[in-house]
Amino acid sequence: MKEKVNITDKIADTLFIPLYMRAKESHRPNGIMKDRLACELVDRIDYDFTRFDKAPLSELGCVVRGRYFDEKVQAFILREKAPVVVNVGCGLDTRFQRIKERRNAIFYELDLPEVIDVREEFLPIEKNDINLRGSMLDTGWMDQLKLNHPDSRFIFIIEGVVMYFTEAQVKSVLTNLAIRFSGGEIHLDVCGSMFQQKGLKPDALKNNNEARILSAINNGRIIEQWMPQLIMTDNRLYQSIEKRRWGAFGIFCRMLPGFSRKFSHLLGYKIKEA
Questions:
Q1: How many angstroms separate the CA atoms of 17 and 143, rounded?
Q2: Pairwise CA distance, residues 10 & 213, whole Å
Q3: How confident is the model at residue 210 (pLDDT cuts 50, 70, 90)?
Q4: Would the pLDDT of 130 be above 90?
Q5: How many other C-beta atoms are found inside a 10 Å radius of the C-beta of residue 85?
């Protein structure tokens, strides 16, 4: 029997999109990622996932993004002596379970209290995968993590989140991370001006009237201007990853990268040493 999930926040409700897309991809013979746990959750949760069935760009984008960030986390863990991984706005992400070589890494999952309640109901409790209740806009959790791990390096994954916040809020979050976690990394995905200025939405959000795109970043260099401690290390088009799957649309995007970034792209930053 399926189990009800009570998520009242309409932005938080978007957590079901990447969960479902990972599950769908896992059923493909040559899927970009295999997420057995996502499949189990979709089977258990009483939710109308079919609303996302006619969203092919989001379907591919979610799994491309998920695997890309998985690779960033895995590389960080293999490189650092005492790595700490923080999933900001984690939703029902299963990155901890997907990473093959976790070694001595500590994972933290940050999200709103009602989301963490759902995580604790449906996901297994793991020794080194710790849930945090809070908002990414707060700084208390940042200070606590710094206090808990004074000798560690941190990598922050902010996946499917920042576009729902204003530019001022995004700037504040990145600034607060940069001034606290020198030597660490921040990786995030962003939407561009075509979504914000034209009132467009990713295809998976067509039935969510309250989830609006509030910030736009066409050029990742603007974040370096916001915070000189941040050095851009990645500026990737979704369509440059798994090129075969994107087909003719991907060819068009790669031919016009500046135009494509007005819709969405992936960014990464190194935080300068103090």
A1: 31
A2: 13
A3: confident
A4: yes
A5: 25
Least Cα distance to 86 among 159, 18, 35, 33 occurs for 159
- pLDDT the model gives residue 10: 79
Say if residue 200's pLDDT is above 90.
no
- Report the predicted TM-score, pTM, of the whole model to 2 decimal places: 0.96
DSSP letters, the chain, are --EE-----TTGGGGHHHHHHHHHHHTSTT-S---HHHHHHHHHEES-GGGGTT-HHHHHHHHHHHHHHHHHHHHHHHH-SSEEEEEET-TT--HHHH-S--TT-EEEEEE-HHHHHHHHHHS--BTTEEEEES-TT-SHHHHHHHHH-TT-EEEEEE-S-GGGS-HHHHHHHHHHHHTT-TT-EEEEEEE-HHHHHH----GGGTT-SS-------S-THHHHHH-TTEEEEEEE-GGGSSHHHHHHHHHHHHHSHHHHTTTEEEEEEEEPP-
Q: What is the pLDDT of residue 152?
A: 98
Cβ neighbors of 147 (< 8 A, separation 6 or more) are none
Q: In this predicted model, what pLDDT tens digit does every residue of 82-128 receive, in sequence order? A: 999 999 999 999 999 999 999 999 999 999 999 999 999 999 889 99
Query: What pLDDT shows up at residue 196?
Result: 78
Structure tokens at 75: 């590389």
Rounded (10°) angle between helices 56-79 and 243-255: 100
